[in-house]
Design a protein that fits this description.
With 164 residues, this protein is mostly helical. It contains four helices and no strands. The protein has one domain: Methane Monooxygenase Hydroxylase, Chain G, domain 1 (Up-down Bundle). α1 (2-35) runs antiparallel to α2 (42-73), α1 (2-35) packs parallel to α4 and α3 runs antiparallel to α4 (93-135).
Length: 164
């Protein structure tokens, strides 16, 4: 039982890493679109990101289940971490799980960095759009009040009513 549980954990770890890499790829595609000013593809990249996020969530559920099963097989708590399982697993499993844990951490860090950068690019794009509309005489107002509630800009004109 322990051997099959360890094999299952190794497989689910690899699938989790693959799902995170795919998510990072989708963030990089979105970043290229945003950096290149290709906002027409923003909805498409968002849909692809949502699919990749769903894949990561599915892989995570599978990983957690496999991790709990392997931990119990090694006489650990089902809530044990991959580090704890690697620490008591016989070789080569300890090494495999340590490597997997390191790769998971790198993948999560990469996704986090890409997400942060994309948020910055989206915010810059939003501000640039507002500035361009202001140059056209369109009062865009703010979309949210300081308390986070939505606001309507009073007296803002739409683009067709803007001064030419």
């Amino acid at each position: 039982m322990t051997q099959s549980a360890l094999e299952g954990l190794a497989g689910s770890t690899e699938r989790q890493i693959a799902a995170l890499r795919r998510l990072a790829f989708k963030f990089e595609v979105q970043q290229m679109m945003l950096s290149g000013g290709r906002s027409m593809w923003l909805d498409e990249t968002l849909a692809e990101l949502e699919g990749a996020i769903a894949d990561v969530q599915h892989a995570d559920r599978e990983f957690r289940s496999s991790l709990g099963e392997a931990a119990v097989g090694l006489a650990l708590s089902p809530e044990s971490t991959l580090r704890e399982v690697a620490g008591v697993a016989p070789e080569p499993w300890g090494y495999i799980f340590d490597q997997g844990r390191d790769e998971l951490q790198r993948s999560v860090d990469r996704v986090s960095a890409l997400c942060t950068e994309n948020r910055k690019l989206l915010a810059r794009g939003y501000l640039a759009t507002g500035a361009a509309l202001s140059l056209l005489g369109v009062d865009t107002g703010s979309s949210y009040r300081p308390d986070g509630a939505p606001s309507r800009a009073e007296g803002s004109a739409n683009l067709l009513n803007a001064k030419a």
